[in-house]
Amino acid sequence: MKSKIIGTGSYLPKKILTNEDFEKMVDTSDEWITTRTGIKERRIAEDNQPTSDLALRAAEAAIKDAKISSSDIDCIIVATITPDMSFPSIACILQDKLQTQNCMAYDFNATCSGFIYGLMMANTFIKTGEAKCVLVIAADKLSSIVDYTDRNTCVLFGDGAGAAILVPAEGNEGVLSVYIGSDGSKAELLKRHGGNTRQPYNKMEHTDFRNQYIYMDGKAIFKHAVQRMTSSLSAALEKAGKQLSDLNMIIPHQANLRIIEMVKEYAKLKDDQVYVCLPKIGNTSASTIPIALDEALKTGKLKKGDLIGLTAFGGGLTFGSAIIQM
């Protein structure tokens, strides 16, 4: 037995932060940002809009798309690095708001690879019979942990959420394989250091305030991202018994257009076989893939029967890929 996706949903806040807006905030320009990242704008949540609100909107859209009732869901998994609070989890908040019954619910942190990790968990629960209908959500309000005086990072990130509903599959369709991995030896390359047990708030000095924000060694992350995304895609294809030439489309994590271009060259695919929504949403962490997946399905770019590859990379370091027959 394997799982299949029967519904997707996504949500992006209304507020748009453009490259021209950043020209008024930091020493940068539209040309500098576009050339180095491919990003033109990103969505920003309101101050009173926590991550769970974004997740709820995406979840409701996925439930509607799947044509099911929220009471059918018996497992909620949320990938996030910006939970509303340390506890309770966003998943438990959603369990209450969606009024699901007898439902296991939990959050986890796999950074930008979170949706791929969530697919692995959902697929395993369904294969083993522990769950019959799993809601996988990736959601983050990265604007809450971005330093808007650091031009190297603040231009990259946006807010958003994406979701998918998975149920048992019959026949050829479904999640054919998922491959995930990690490399903790490179953890210092991308991190948010302050605010937890290593540096709790009550022990912080004023000079440590920047540790509340995202830190990234951009050059090093770029190199590892390309290497891990391509190698994990190959591993997932091997597990599925498929070749790169079998793929109709790849949906990569939307972090940087140059990374996406290198993944496209590796896979030897045409422009229309690699789905890109990065220019208008920026890097929304784990939610970039389900947002792009939802958009590709709703616009008809993806069709029933298509074989797709999802591939991601993030802090941890984490990485992973999935092969899905739609």
Protein described:
This protein has 326 residues and is α/β, with parallel strands linked by helices. The chain has 2 domains: 169 residues, Peroxisomal Thiolase, Chain A, domain 1 (3-Layer(aba) Sandwich); 150 residues, Peroxisomal Thiolase, Chain A, domain 1 (3-Layer(aba) Sandwich). Helix content is 33%, strand content 25%. The strands form 4 sheets. The protein has a 5-stranded mixed beta sheet, with helices on both faces. Strands 8-13-12-11 form a 4-stranded mixed beta sheet, with helices on both faces. A two-stranded antiparallel sheet has the order 2-3. Helix 3 packs across helix 4 and helix 7 runs parallel beside helix 8. The two termini are 16 Å apart. 51% of the residues are buried. The mean pLDDT is 94.
What are its keywords?
alpha/beta, Peroxisomal Thiolase, Chain A, domain 1, four-stranded mixed β-sheet, 10 helices
- Can you tell me the CATH architecture of the largest domain? 3-Layer(aba) Sandwich
Order of strands across the main sheet: 1-7-6-4-5
Assign the CATH class of the largest domain: Alpha Beta
Distance between the termini: 16 Å
User: How many domains, in number, for the residues?
Assistant: 2
| Total of DSSP H or I helical runs spanning 4+ residues | 10
The CATH topology of the largest domain is given as: Peroxisomal Thiolase, Chain A, domain 1
Helix content: 25-40%
Number of strands: 13
Radius of gyration: 19 Å
> At the fourth CATH level, what is the homologous superfamily of the largest domain?
Thiolase/Chalcone synthase
Major sheet, described briefly? 5 strands, mixed
Strand content: 15-25%
Task: List low-confidence stretches.
Answer: none
**Helix and strand composition category:** alpha/beta
In N-to-C order, the SSE pattern is EEHHEHEHEHEHEEEEHEHHHEE
Q: Overall 3D geometry?
A: globular
Kindly state the mean pLDDT as a whole number? 94
